[in-house]
């Protein structure tokens, strides 16, 4: 899969080729931001915010059958050590507080995937009194529709996110100090106001 | 002795035990309904507790907006008494909608504590004497809306259109024919 430019390519599966490409990158003395982007692409650590049934598909994605680890992503435990948050399912008004707090705890560069219809626009609970849309709380990079989406769809979303990161999304924030291409949404009201009292 | 006879016998026994407290005792499908006046509610609960009903299985509230009342019902049964464990008794009282105050039964049955909190957040019914009355699942600003009441209408409701009248008449004539 490697060519002389290496532009717009995502490296999947073949470890030998990836290692060769990595050696090339180092020997040719490429710019630091390219190395950061390349490194972040293959070290996405998703933390799962399992609020409903999409958690089963999330688990299956990293199970033996679909094995999304081969794309360079592995679920991790603490939001303070991860760079990707996968929102699985409905976000209630109480959970919105937890979502925003975990998002702000995550170190830069960070990304978000919204998985399932509920995370897109409410889904089944579209007119419930107790839900918020995740895009009102944090900036979402990739949306995965479906109720629930297939594990392949989530794996595809990770490959899609890798394309975004490869374009310079990671180095932009941590090296150049620029803003994300998707701005953080301005909150209409503090989702944690009930908690602070 | 068939099961219906057993139920009848048991409801008779309940009537004897409760005496004047019970407004009516009815056999329903799966449970026996005991309706009580609001001021005798706690007294009746204590009587049932003395009989051997030791826990609350569920607490239901029905918003009967046309009658202007909330119907508060406690489903009680027993773990320890094997004879009573076969029956479920629903202790029901009607509370006026404009003054929703019910005596709390936590000191009679401690297992009612969380369920009373849930009724409080959904309907805004105050349980007097509850040790820790605050919303259970909802955030306090949402609980203030009293979202389970009939008068609470969700924002985006009304996206379904009614059927055209022509089709309606056709369907009804088919049914009658």
Question: Could you characterize the architecture of this molecule?
Answer:
The complex is a heterodimer of chains A (197) and B (177). In chain A, the strands form two sheets. Chain A has a four-stranded parallel β-sheet with strand order 1-2-4-6. Chain A is of the alpha/beta class and 197 residues long. Chain A has seven helices and six strands, in the order H-H-E-H-E-E-H-E-H-E-E-H-H. Chain A is globular, with a radius of gyration of 18 Å. The longest helix of chain A is centred in the C-terminal third of the chain and has 24 residues, at 151-174. In chain A, strand 1, helix 3 (54-61) and strand 2 (84-88) form a beta-alpha-beta unit. Chain B is an alpha/beta fold and 177 residues long. Chain B has one domain (2-176): NADH:ubiquinone oxidoreductase Nqo5 subunit (Beta Polymerase, domain 2, 2-Layer Sandwich). Chain B has helices spanning 3-18, 41-51, 113-123, 140-143, 165-176, and strands at residues 22-27, 32-36, 55-64, 69-77, 89-96, 101-103, 126-128. Chain B has a five-stranded mixed β-sheet with strand order 1-2-5-4-3, covered by helices on one side. In chain B, strands 6-7 form a two-stranded parallel ribbon. The mean pLDDT of chain B is 86. At the A-B interface, loops of A face helix 4 of B.
